[in-house]
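Notes taken during the Thursday session

The instructor put the following on the board and asked us to keep it in front of us for the whole hour. The protein is Peroxide stress protein YaaA. We were told not to look anything up and to reason only from what is written here. First, the residues (259 in total):
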Amino acid sequence: MLILLPPSEGKAAPSRGRALDLDALALTVLTDARKRVLHALVGLCRDEPDRAVEVLGLSAGQADLVERNARLESAPTARADRVYAGVLYDALDAGSLSAAARRRAATRVAVTSSLFGLVRFGDRIPAYRLSGDAALPGLGPVAGVWRDALGGAVEEALGRGLLVDLRSSMYAAFWRPPARLGSRVATVRVLHEVGGQRKIVSHFNKATKGRIVRALLEDGADPRTPAALADALRDLGWTVEVGEAAEKGTQLDVVVAEL
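Then, after some discussion, the predicted structure tokens were revealed:
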């Protein structure tokens, strides 16, 4: 099983640790693309900080993020599961996973990243700011870079297992599963139900996805089909509805009434 997560906009900046080593990151098939995006981002933020604020969609009060990006090649790094922050990652709480769950996370979880393509929890990365909808001078949209590069990396990480796609729509655009993988792809949507009405609420969506990942890692379940994943989630206490199978995969709706 491979669980694909979105990154977080906010990140915890390591205060110490060795500098970034792109060659040491998992999924080395992505190294060349990582170098191109990193060099474009660092160059923009180092040489044109005012333009970088606009390109990165920042406010005038976030100039420190431009300065941080300019120093990415020498900045301290930490494990990715300690750098990514926010609602989903707080709910997952990787630091408190059992030893067995941490071992599973090392091979079953990957984070989609505008800067690195895919990141394993154990990869050492610096805190950075680069949205999935950004376009860098001389490089173009980062989503386009990863559309050309991610397929081989995802399939290498996936092997023969089930792909559990928890990415947000922005990061889902980086790579879409081909039809030949459709029977092994499950996307998960979280619906908040109140008074018989269902809607998607960002906070519920992110928190529930984090808790789902945590529960699957702790439980050790390794479903091989979307239907088996739905059964595993029901066994773990969630209400799950299974959609029709399609070329791009099967959607599972997880319905929650409260956080």
